[in-house]
Amino acid sequence: DMLENDSVNNLDVMLENPKRALIRMSIPLIISLFITSFYNLVDAAWVSGLGADALAGVGFFTPIFMILVGFGNGLGSGATFATSKYLGENNIKKAHNASVHSILINIVVSLIITVLLWVLLTPILNIMGAGATISYALDYGIVIVLGSVFIICSNALYGIFRGEGDASRPMYAMGASAIINMILDPIFIYTLNLGVKGAAIATVISSVFVILILLFWFYVKKDTFLKPNLSNFNFQKDISLDIVRVGIPASIQLLNNAFFAAVFSALLAYVGTTDSVAVYSTGWRIVTIGTTPLLAIGTALISVIAANYGARNYKNIQIAHRYAMKISIVIAVIVAILTNVFAGDIASVFASSSSSVRIAGELTMFLAWIVLYYPTMAVGVASTYVFQGVGKGITAMFQTIMRETGFTILFAVLFGVVLGYGVWGAWMGIVLGEIISNNITMLWANYLVKKLIKINKA
């Protein structure tokens, strides 16, 4: 079977030519993440037509939505680690078994989250201060919560494909999902007059559609290398532990972003005005798009490193890590220069409505300065994913929290509040915190890989 050979070929490339494998997997991942960012912007544009309150209501639910996607992506990383590792060990049977374990763990975790959110949604939104917009937030949120099994599982299933070194098919599925969502949005929101509820229904339907595509490849066309069939399943505690050991910390690592955003917004409101919070939330969206390629390369690195870790080919881990850092630095420097040069133009696109024109100046300044840390983020992100690739999920989680929350907020408070530099001090705090912690992470990953190579020589 041609495609079966293709997947074996993916595995061979990961073990024999880690640089090529990294490029081959990074490109579809970069495209996938850009599709998601683009589609989030389109989604917001359709909802904004319903007025400021509707947009704010959906905005309050956004962190919760990010939690669902975060759990999906986190569990996906766990699946990638376990399946790649067993394939690298040449234990094909165990890899098939791990793919079934992943699906079952995804379903259990997403049902638990659904029940928790169903019970806690109103209190959470009240704590977040949804106030007058809570009816919009609930209209949107309840539909998403009921469909959260599909949202989590669609993101988590991608991990199985990446585990066998295939990043292209998740890209096709994500593309299809984004297109369906964009077509359904205006129909449900305006034609059927369902408002924000319509936007949520469109999102859930497109997630269901992704799952159907992935299940079609697994169970109808049967052309994936990994076979997540129940006949390949027998419960093994060590497989579950491998998936959870990387998957749960990876999920928490992604939840940390939501926590950071909340704390940082509160800090800005304290040292600046609500305008500063608007600059940050808009500016951070641009930063997220700009740093997308770095996260994609990191995600691709998990499969390459886990396969070589399973094969005890530790020198390849070093090659892949260093290569990932090199490409990431080149991309980061280019993006940083472009963002800095065109900061004014980018700001004017995002701050175009009459009410937001007044933040354009501050947004331009934010973008011009914040890019200073991009090149160090390139080494930090690649290094954090090395730890996921060798199954040290907790360490990776600790580093991300240290990087994104610990150091950055510490310095932001120091410069913004203690030394009195205000909003600009808070921005600089992010930059300095990232620079220091990213370099710590890089040295730590280097030490770990060298230690592994030493073990091999001994």
How would you sum up this structure, described in words?
- Helix content is 86%, strand content 0%.
- The model is unreliable at 1-5 (pLDDT under 50).
- The protein has 16 helices and no strands.
- The chain is mainly α and 458 residues long.
- The two termini are 41 Å apart.
Topology:
Elements: H1 2-16, H2 18-48, H3 52-88, H4 92-128, H5 134-146, H6 148-163, H7 168-191, H8 195-220, H9 237-271, H10 274-310, H11 314-341, H12 343-350, H13 360-370, H14 374-389, H15 393-418, H16 422-457
Morphology call? globular
> What is the H/E order?
HHHHHHHHHHHHHHHH
Poorly predicted runs: 1-5
Question: Beta fraction of the residues?
Answer: under 5%
Estimate percent helicity: over 70%
- List the quaternary state of the chains: single chain
Tell me the structural class: mainly alpha
Outline of the structure:
By secondary structure, the protein is an all-alpha fold.
Question: Which terms would index this structure?
Answer:
globular; 458 residues
